[in-house]
Amino acid sequence: MSDRKEDDAIEKTRDLRTAIPSVDIYENDNEILLYADMPGVKKEDLSINIDNGTLSLSGVRRFENKGVSRWEQFSDIEYARSFSVPQSIEVERVEAALKDGVLKLHLPKSEAAKPKMIKINAA
């Protein structure tokens, strides 16, 4: 049995496939850190939105095809995922970095949301 595609004139009719990226989420006193696995996504094809307590991530991985297709297992794909985030996140200070296919988001907490030590006064 041959796995090789015999027809060079393959018509591509499939829509962009969507996948849910794997994430790790950490929280400390100052921020929430989110790591999302989005291999092959370029910075210009990435969208990050926070609106009304919902964080939405979306990124498209596109392959440049040169020549006639003989074998295809990879295809263009859209990574998309949404999360509820606390209203205490300071949206203006959110930072994002994309490196080696991993998106890293820093979601800083507002001062009001940070834990505070209460000093006890002696009576």
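Above is the first protein from milestone M3; the second protein from the same milestone is given next.
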Amino acid sequence: MHTLNLTTSGTELGKASRALILLHGRGSSAGDILSLAGYLNLKATALLAPQAANHTWYPHSFMAPAKDNEPWLSSAITIVKQTVDTALKAGIPEKNIYFLGFSQGACLTLEYIARHAQHYGGAVAFTGGLIGDQLYTENYKGDFKQTPVFIGTSDPDFHVPVERVHETTRVLTQMNAAVTEKVYPNMGHTISEDEINLANRIVFDPSNG
């Protein structure tokens, strides 16, 4: 089971006005996802990156039956919640908490915010979708109150079918998120410069808040 193991960077949490929670992909690490921060417009922002046990948030594809990824998926959701609570206890309100994930971390990001929707600072999912062999809409609760969300993905992508990305956008939009989805033909399973630029403009630009 996962335990809260945070790697931090950026502005010291007690002095930051914003917090960004970064979730790494399968086989990766908190340190790897933190390296993206140098490309993002982040001022006075505390960076919080939890580490998955054995570098994997859950064992199977995000499209597998949800029960097959338990109890790891529930444990991963709890770790994200504990990371959010860490920021809250430091005095950073939800509206100044941001999320960013890649691949498995992007799926976990989207699943967490859909289960705990409220007015966040914003969220970025580089190639991901809501988790499960089907969408378990009974798990999704709350109102995003126009939280900006950017989802970028490749078509095709070996791990994330574009149809699931479209479904995810539809669900989050119905929950009152301001979703920007961009599909890149044959981009591959990676993060592009254009995605970084859009994330900065749509999500991390303070003037959007």
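Note on the second protein: The CA atoms of residues 1 and 72 lie 6 Å apart.
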